[in-house]
Amino acid sequence: MNTKNFLKKALFAISLAFAITLPANAQTPADDPHLGIIPAPASIKKTTGVFVFSQLTRIKVDNPKDKTTAFLKDFLLNNRHFNNRLSKYNPKVRTTGGTTLILTAKGADKLPKEGYKLTITPRRITIIGKGAGLFYGMQTFMQLFPVATSGTEKLPCVVIEDAPRFGYRGMMLDVSRHFFTVPQVKKVIELLATYKINNFHWHLVDGQGWRIEIKKYPKLTQVGGYRDQTMFGTNRDWPDSLSYGGYYTQDDIRDVVKFAADRFINVVPEIEMPAHSDAALRAYPELRCEQPADSKTPARSFGSLYCPTEETFTFLENVLTEVMALFPSKYIHVGGDEANKQPWKESAFVQNLIKEKGFKDENEVQSYFIQRMEKFINAKGRSIIGWDEILEGGLAPNATVMSWTGEEGGIAAAKQKHNVIMTPQTTGNYFDHYQSGSPQEPVSFGRYATLDETYNYDPVSKELTPEEQQYVIGTQGNLWTEYVPTMAKLQYQILPRLFALSEVAWSLPANKDYNNFANVRLAKHFARLDAKGYNYRVPIAMPVIDTMVFGQRFTWAPVSVVPGAKIYYTLNGRDPLDTDLEYNGNPITFAIPANEKREFKTRVITPSGRRSIASRVLMYNRTLMPAVNYTANKPGLTYKLLKTKFTTPDQLDYVTTKDSAMIDQFNAEPFKKDNPSFGAVYNGYINIPADGAYNFSQASYTDTQLFIDGEKLTETEPALPLAKGFHKITVKYIYNQPVLQPGAYRIRQTPLKVFITAPDGDKREIDAGMLYN
Ligand code: ACM
């Protein structure tokens, strides 16, 4: 059993009544200091009165034909059914009577880059801004409208002065692992524009598919645009032989670039090199170092590299020449990540190149590769971005580093005075990650990144001096699409995390407040998504997805941030459906008989029918388990190793062996070397620092059992109320060397680890320092 890192906590209540009314939500939309706007503006000053927008409101603009005006007209007509009179703005002519909306660049000279000023008085709205600034002012103005349309719209009187914290605010979409059509890509771009994101990083090329037409190399899309498999199974382990793919023609690309530019979004194309290039190498195998693929090469042979030959450089220069003709972007992304250098290690050509150029190793070959491409791109007046591995072997002189493996690459690059875009996979910026640890989440990638993790990230590391901090030019969210085959899943993965990202990228840290964001402002934005038919992850109605609590009496008050959502609940252990009990808003109290358990589950269903995952709280009325009488204070565990095959840890109960040995902590790795199959029983004591409810969990490749004072803990009942002092801990573990299943290409093996979560939620591995025997 592979125990997931559940978002599961044990709360402890020994008092008679335990009431939870969450979230602690003091604010209502009426007193929200940010007026519901995402991302939070730099400054909002509320004034008195309201502006009543109606069909009679006159609109005055500098240029009735410009992009922002076109948007405004579209919004008013198609979203609000208004077709207001529009004329050229002349500051010398004062309008009298009625209401007026003015959009102008006059007075914008003093504003920061991309900044705007929005002033609403009872008779007049003025949006001052230039280019993108005016566009963002209009986006903020549009967000002030109520979600539901009526004939007259009341807007609060206010003065908003706003500008972004970072110049680069990005989102990346991978269209290689799964392909998204032009209309689908535009739908993503529209969303970015609404939230003031100004760079769309288009990951057009990867091992699983080449998606951009290159006239000089038609096989890139004809061959490289298609692959041989639909993925089956959660880990994409079982391909079939049906063709999957697609690509964008150069006309498609121009169309998307213009669509984005109309919304003040720059499109950064990414052409991966030297790795993630298998699609290109399937089309043009002569660009590999190793022999061309033959019929014996497995279909899924990812991990090859371009060979750094003159032929490769000419090919890539020709590709980039066409790419640069299509994309006006200052930045051209050249990838550079995850290059496993093995093919270069085995290549006589590369080894010879290393000798000839006096390179230390293959990392310097990658550096040479990227620097050559940079020189070519710089000569055309553009700049490169590369993933942080381009630091290895020496950074190209003018490169911007996109820090993804963690923050370290970005920090190192900033210290070398290189521009940096922070998009670490460790800080909530990877939107392909799960949104919680619950097994109910749709299949996603690797770890989980919660909304608050995304929200609370600060791209400017404290490790940088104020001077070095200037090199952090922005941040980005990345959506890799291995597990994103549909538009609904795409939207689920990015919403609402994209909203959090936009606030990280745009808003001043002093204006950020997760409680206000998640429990107040999100309401209006979810309602908008519902109205527009977007999918999104619906937050649960309880503070924790899966909780075990101890006490006699509990009161729960579930709440949903989604306007009009209903909360259904069960008391029978089933995950709630819309046929179950509907929560009526009055807190529910439970009185649990002594030594008995009761289960309360909730689920949110929005007006558009979208469902949250189900939450669960298990209430258990039992008293503290007393500490055992143990005084030896001898560190380590005893274990018994049984060198035979078991199918379940239960069988370990029937083995009698007196041979026992010592080990410092729960660790099965040393036994695996000599034993393809074995069982191990670990025994010891754990020192519990204070009375409270403690949660235990384990991670392992196979089935594992965990006991505290002889009581078995499970995924559904993972906690016990323990008195301060020593408690007996036992782990029963079995191992059988895994066999590669037919069609599978890898095995995941998780080493044995045991974890404890303290009553305050602090989770840690139970290590040598905590164990005695
Ligand atoms: C990456 O996630 N490999 C950049």
From TrEMBL:
It catalyses: Hydrolysis of terminal non-reducing N-acetyl-D-hexosamine residues in N-acetyl-beta-D-hexosaminides. Its EC number is 3.2.1.52. Keywords: Glycosidase, Hydrolase, Signal. Coiled coil: none annotated. Residues 1-26 form the signal peptide. Residues 35-163 form the Beta-hexosaminidase bacterial type N-terminal domain. The keyword Signal applies. It is an enzyme of class 3 (hydrolase). Belongs to the glycosyl hydrolase 20 family. Residues 166-507 form the Glycoside hydrolase family 20 catalytic domain. Residues 634-718 form the PA14 domain. It holds the Pfam family Glyco_hydro_20. This is beta-N-acetylhexosaminidase. It comes from Mucilaginibacter aquariorum. SUPFAM superfamilies: (Trans)glycosidases (SSF51445), Anthrax protective antigen (SSF56988), beta-N-acetylhexosaminidase-like domain (SSF55545).
